[in-house]
Amino acid sequence: MSTQEKTLEELLLKEAVETQNEIVLFNDDVNTFDHVINTLIYACEHTAEQAEQCALLVHYKGKCTVKTGLYDDLKPRCSMLLDAGLSAEII
């Protein structure tokens, strides 16, 4: 096994071990679809289509994972959602 292959294996293993967290957005009876969509576009860098699909899932299912990644990346995004009046948490 070459050094390059071994390094690549170690890198892949490290990536697999890092914990992926999720921002879950919850339904409420206060915010409009437009507000939720615009906030998802801003805070989570969704496309308009992604944001609309998430808003519909939240409306009909009660919750939806809107972003997955490392905690340090998700924390400020979740704060933006909360500051906009949405109900969200990192799990």
UniProtKB/TrEMBL annotation:
Coiled coil region boundaries: none
InterPro entries per UniProt = ClpS_core, Ribosomal_bL12_C/ClpS-like
Which organism is this entry from?
Mariniflexile soesokkakense
Q: Which GO terms describe its molecular function?
A: peptidase activity
UniProt keyword annotations, A-Z: Hydrolase, Protease
User: Do you know which SUPFAM superfamilies this protein is assigned to?
Assistant: ClpS-like
Q: Do the record's keywords include Signal?
A: no
Q: Which GO terms describe its biological process?
A: proteolysis
Q: What is this protein called?
A: ATP-dependent Clp protease adaptor ClpS
Could you tell me which residue ranges the Adaptor protein ClpS core domain spans? 20-83
Its ancestry begins with: Bacteria, Pseudomonadati, Bacteroidota, Flavobacteriia, Flavobacteriales
